[in-house]
Input
Amino acid sequence: MGAAFGAQILLKKVGRATRMAAEAVGASALTSTAPAAYCVATGQLNHKAWVLWLVNWLFAADQVHFVWLRIRGMRG
Output
């Protein structure tokens, strides 16, 4: 999670072109708690845990993308 935080900071410093990518990296770090919770609940870290992470990340990334599209729509 620390690496994702560092990557997010670096992407934000590059400029506006990479801000959405930085948000996607942040979403991947936040959604990494899904497989961790699955592991705690079941005692297993298997493919189901990673599918759970992927589904959560796709949902979060879709939300980030939607907000960015709305912001760009307001500007243009």
